[in-house]
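Predict structure. Chain length: 95.
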Amino acid sequence: MLKKGINSPLTSSCGRLFDGISALLGIRHKVNYEAQAAIELEQVVDFSERSHYLQMAGEVDSAGALSTEAIIRGVVDDHLNGVAVGRLRHASIEA
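Prediction complete.
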């Protein structure tokens, strides 16, 4: 979808990343207000978890975009394996 530009708007924020992860985890597929999916995702995060997905992040390309494929795969793999989504937090993607 991204390659074809279908339902893949460009964004400079991480909000869409958290929206997408929330949908993948079955937390929120449709929102009624801004940041709803991210807020609900935050409610299931295990904040006692100290590691994070940053080490899974890809390279930053010449346009300054961070590859999030490995982060998303890590979240989904953890979810499918029954691992608490504790490593997902804003610190995971802060530069």
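Summary: The longest helix spans residues 69-80.
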